[in-house]
Amino acid sequence: MDRVSTGVPGLDAMLGGGLIPARPYVVSGPTGAGKTILAMQFLAAGLAKGEAGLMVTLDEPPNEVKANVVAFGWNLDRLKILDATPDIKAHKRQRSVIDVGTTMDVRDMDQVGEIRQSSQIRAMEVSIHGVQKMLKQEFFQRQERTREKYKRIVVDSITALKMFSMGGEDSRIMIQSFMRFLSELEATTLLVSERLNPKILETEFFLCRGEIRFHKSLDGNVIRRAVSIEKFRGSRFDDRVRPMSITNSGVSVDAQGVVAMTGGRLAALGQEYLEQRMGEEVTTVIESVLKMVEDAHRMRMAVTDIEHAISRAMLQIQRRNYQKAMKAALHAQSVIRERLEKARQGPPPPPPPAAPPPPGVRR
Ligand SMILES: Nc1ncnc2c1ncn2[C@@H]1O[C@H](COP(=O)(O)OP(=O)(O)OP(=O)(O)O)[C@@H](O)[C@H]1O
Ligand SMILES: [Mg+2]
């Protein structure tokens, strides 16, 4: 099977040749780990082979994204960057103004009103649904214009996307539908995700077909960088943590190298791995349900209740309540399995009573 190069030979080697095409993957790691650089390197590798690349940026405005990788000498002229950056300045200003609330005078109050309003509008613009619409439009417009599809897509970052959209259960369902939408585009997609809390498994980690995780630790006054493949559906892969570095040619991975598991935060990885194993079984069930949810969507069956059940299971995993998570996941699995079987055997079902509400509408 053809593989898609990440643009980093050492990483391709860890992946058994590269990524399996037309699927979404997560690139995770702490800030400054090299996620954005890898994402750009992946796009640049595609452009060099004539594969159209599309980047959605929420973390930095497009000019900064490009400026940050000038040193690597990649030709990004043909890269399309969609700017989905929210007005972060307004958010920050708003917060600091609130912090000093007691010392504000009337003149400042006027300003606060203005800033609030503008930041609210901006925050609404950066809904998951909005970004999805923007992506869809660009994707199909290009296809019409040039009869060529975007082969590689990057979303930097999905963490920001969630932060600037709704929280809670709805945002998990939105991410489910966003990932489904990405799969349908049949482009190889990298979703950049910061693991804000290593103990929490965010929705995108369940739904992606693989995860490339960057690690960063301080050893004395030297920054140690490492990378690992956390999962890769449908392929063998190197499950060791390997040393990586950022040089003048971008991210570089030593696929044979050994990371000294001494001192620093890398040593703490063991605990994290253990936690993940515990959640793994539930994850497998959730993934099987999500696959059936995809089938159900294709068959135009109403499965909102199943999606909610899965969201609850994910929430339980995030709370590290694996028993409850498993119960919810197994229940959802049996319900949807039965529903699908009925639909496949019996005569075509009548259309669902009402179309599921459009994404973005609270249920
Ligand atoms: N030319 C270069 N040579 C070596 N290191 C570099 C070079 N350019 C950037 N870096 C390093 O790359 C890191 C930034 O990488 P990147 O922007 O990809 O991080 P990130 O994971 O996307 O972080 P964030 O989550 O904050 O966006 C910094 O640590 C910086 O020191
Ligand atoms: Mg970044």
Task: Explain what you see.
The structure is a single chain. Mean pLDDT is 81; it is low at 88-125. The protein has 12 helices and 9 strands. It has 3 domains: 9-85 and 126-264, P-loop containing nucleotide triphosphate hydrolases (Rossmann fold, 3-Layer(aba) Sandwich), CATH 3.40.50; 88-124, no CATH class; 272-340. The relative contact order is 0.14. The two termini are 42 Å apart. Helix 4 runs antiparallel to helix 5, helix 8 packs across helix 11 (304-318) and helix 11 packs antiparallel against helix 12 (322-345). It is 48% helix and 15% strand. The chain is globular, with a radius of gyration of 22 Å. The chain has helices spanning 9-14, 35-48, 62-68, 88-99, 106-125, 128-146, 158-163, 168-185, 203-207, 269-298, 304-318, 322-345, and strands at 24-28, 53-57, 80-83, 152-156, 188-193, 210-219, 222-232, 242-247, 250-253. It is α/β, with parallel strands linked by helices and 363 residues long. It binds adenosine-5'-triphosphate and magnesium ion. Adenosine-5'-triphosphate binds at residues 29, 31-37, 59, 71, 194, 246-248.
Tags for this entry?
single chain, 363 residues, alpha/beta, Rossmann fold, 3 domains, nine-stranded mixed beta sheet, 12 helices, 9 strands, globular, binds adenosine-5'-triphosphate, binds magnesium ion
